[in-house]
Specification:
alpha+beta, 4 helices, 28% strand, globular
């Protein structure tokens, strides 16, 4: 398994599989701008030269103590193998090196696998926030304090 910073050239490969990996259309949540403007803080995992997973995250320009994981995914055949944990650890390490003390993320309330994963990584899991992403788009929030994380 090889982890590396993402490049803008990774966009096509990621967007080409993400709907299949999720089993539903989610690619609209992952516009090219993330690979064009946040590639240095985003990551790609490769196994034998093939895309195994990715994490799109950034250091918040408005909240200088925070970093944010926007989207992360792992090939369905590799889920549970530690790929996501390695991606998150690398992102957290980079955020910590930049002086960030908080990592944030969100997911839909029905994404129980994501909720369990974030909880296992040491994130505080919030209650669903009604209308977080607009009417009818409730989200669960995650917060990881880097002063006491378990990763």
């Amino acid at each position: 398994m090889r982890l590396r910073p993402a490049t803008s050239g990774d966009y096509d490969a990621v967007v080409g599989v993400v709907d299949a990996w999720w089993g539903r259309p989610v690619s609209s949540s992952l516009p090219r701008l993330f690979f064009d403007h946040f590639a240095a803080t985003s990551l790609v995992a490769e196994c034998d030269g093939e895309l195994a997973g990715f994490l799109v995250g950034f250091l918040s320009p408005d909240h200088r103590d925070e970093a944010y994981v926007h989207f992360a995914g792992v090939h369905p055949d590799l889920r549970g193998s530690g790929v996501a944990r390695r991606l998150y650890r690398r992102f957290i390490d980079g955020a910590r090196l930049d002086g960030r003390t908080v990592i944030r993320a969100i997911t839909s309330p029905g994404n129980t696998d994501s909720i369990a994963f974030h909880e296992a990584m040491g994130f505080e899991v919030g209650e669903p926030v009604r209308g977080y992403n607009g009417p009818g788009r409730d989200m669960v929030t995650f917060v990881l304090s880097l002063s006491g994380d378990r990763v």
